[in-house]
Amino acid sequence: MAPWLSRHRSTLVLAVLLVVLSIYSLFVGVIDLDTSAILAGDFEAIELLLISRLPRLLAIVCTGVGMSVAGLIMQQLCMNKFVSPTTGATISSAQLGILLALVFWPSATLWQRTILAFVFAILGTWVFVWFIQRIQFKDVVMVPLVGIMFGNVVGGITSFLAFRFDMTQSLSSWLVGHFSMVLRGRYEIVWLTLPLVVLAFVFANHFNIVGMGRDFSKNLGVPYNLVLFLGLTIAAMITASVVVVVGAISYIGLIVPNLVSMFKGDKIRGTLVDTALFGALFVLVCDLIGRLVIHPYELPIELIIGIIGSVLFVGLLLYRLNHGRKAIRLGAAGASSCAVSAQSAVQKKEGE
Length: 352
What we know:
The chain has 352 residues and is mainly α. The chain is built from 16 helices and no strands. The chain has one domain (2-351): ABC transporter involved in vitamin B12 uptake, BtuC.
């Protein structure tokens, strides 16, 4: 039992912190809510809990889990620690899909807008990967810069269309992420992140193998293009489902996987649970800061995450550039076990 606890200590700590802060967040807001009123059967208190506070908490958890796992998948498949839905044009492409639905399909339901956001997020992510596959010298900074430039081009097209069709105000709700409008009946689409995260866990070993290169994947009999297609599609669908409900939230998929991998290694199956828990905890803490800093008013969570995330991003960038070998050595510990098992599989296959 002791070895198991030592191996999963970080997971248990993150889970306990997430549960404690989740319970606390239910009672933070403009309207006071206490346990005595809920236990006494106060209808207004129970209604506030079920219609507003609990859906908001679930949306926060799903957003943190989904965006963190999406960033982890993209970083592994693109073999670059600075690739994420933010730097891979996935968020910008999803926003373009939502705008086109508002302009050319004004009677579309929320699910229909979501489908269009899925399509454009997937297409935008594929185009980004197509770009970076044709870069001969994939510098650690060059790949995310290409994604940022491509995302700005997509964002510029989105802004032009919004201005052209007088939809700038409607688009603004998807440009800045916030949870203030999350209510029961209007957030359930974000639940799609959970089965997609489970699917990512099922194919975690395949993503690890594909992340080692096309030739390595072929030697193990793993279909490189199919797994790459599947992983990017999962990441894009997670991002689109979050953008439709909450709006654009940057840095989660970039910061969280990097911080977790510095302590747990780069093997997806070994870090996915910790990445999901830490992502949910990170978003929850930022949301609480936004609700408490100028209480009873509320700051958008995109503002809080943008400030904290930009500082952490600069720190991670300097760390990776100044201690690149050390970072690679730390990640190699997690990847070596996968490489050893992969080599043994090759030997076994050749022996057969």
